[in-house]
Write a structure and sequence with these properties.
This is Homing endonuclease LAGLIDADG domain-containing protein. By secondary structure, this protein is α+β, with helices and mostly antiparallel strands. The protein is built from six helices and ten strands, in the order αββαββαββαββαββα. The strands form three sheets. The chain has a four-stranded antiparallel beta sheet. It has a four-stranded antiparallel beta sheet with strand order 7-8-10-9. Helix 2 packs antiparallel against helix 4 and helix 4 crosses helix 6.
C-alpha cells in the first residue's frame, strides 16, 4: 500500500491511489523504455529493458497487481528485461501505442499519477536538486508530446542538457507534487525515488 495525500488531507484526482490499479496504468512504462508487440490482430505484449534488476521485479509486481503475469529475464544486451505474455486484454494498448513498427503517443493521451508511478519505476532517478525521467531514444517523436503531457499534470519538465532522451524536473514544489502524484516508493526503490533533498550520485 502507498499513500499520497495533500497537506489538507485530500487525495489528488490524478494521484496514483485515486482509483484502483487498472491495465491502462501500464502506459506509464511505455512513456519510458516500454514497448508493445502485437500477435497478429489478436493479442498484445508489453516488454521493457531496464537498468537495474529491482526495476524489472517492481514492474512485474505492478503487472501482477493488474492481473497480468510478467517474467523477468535478461535481454540480449544483458540488461534486465520484464515481459508479459501475449494477452487479448493488452491489445488495446498495442493498437494505441503502435503505428506499424513505430511507437507513437496515442492521440489525446492524458498522463495521471498511476502512469507516472510506473514511469518512475521503469526509468526515474534523482539527480542533484532534480528528478530525471528517461524517454525512449528510439521513439523521438514521443518526447515533446510527453513534455506536454507532464505539463498538463502540473509537472513542467525540460530536456536534460546534453541528453536527448532524459527529462528533468526541478524545484522543490514540483518535486513535492511528483511525490504527491506517485506515492511512496515500493521496497527497494527508495534510492530512485524523487527527493526533496539534493542527491549527489556516486561517480
Amino acid at each position: 500500500m502507498f499513500y499520497s495525500v495533500r497537506v489538507d488531507g485530500t487525495i489528488s484526482l490524478f494521484s496514483a491511489e485515486a482509483s484502483g490499479p487498472v491495465l491502462a496504468d501500464l502506459a506509464g512504462v511505455l512513456c519510458g523504455p516500454g514497448r508493445m508487440t502485437g500477435f497478429g490482430r489478436t493479442a498484445g505484449r508489453l516488454s521493457a529493458v531496464v537498468d537495474e534488476p529491482w526495476r524489472a521485479g517492481a514492474l512485474a509486481r505492478e503487472c501482477r497487481r493488474r492481473g497480468v503475469q510478467a517474467q523477468v529475464s535478461a535481454a540480449e544486451c544483458g540488461r534486465p528485461l520484464v515481459r508479459t505474455p501475449f494477452r487479448v486484454d493488452l491489445l488495446p494498448l498495442e493498437r494505441r501505442w503502435n503505428r506499424g513498427e513505430e511507437k507513437v503517443l496515442p492521440e489525446g493521451f492524458r498522463l495521471d499519477g498511476a502512469m507516472l508511478r510506473m514511469w518512475a519505476l521503469a526509468a526515474g532517478s534523482p539527480q542533484g536538486n532534480g528528478y530525471l525521467l528517461a524517454l525512449d531514444p528510439a521513439a523521438p517523436e514521443t518526447h515533446e508530446l510527453l513534455i506536454t503531457a507532464l505539463a498538463r499534470l502540473g509537472v513542467p519538465a525540460k530536456v536534460q542538457k546534453g541528453e536527448d532522451a532524459l527529462l528533468r524536473v526541478t524545484g522543490r514544489r514540483r518535486l513535492a507534487h511528483v511525490l504527491e502524484l506517485i506515492g511512496d516508493a515500493p521496497a527497494g526503490a527508495e534510492p530512485a525515488w524523487p527527493s526533496l533533498v539534493p542527491v549527489v550520485r556516486a561517480v
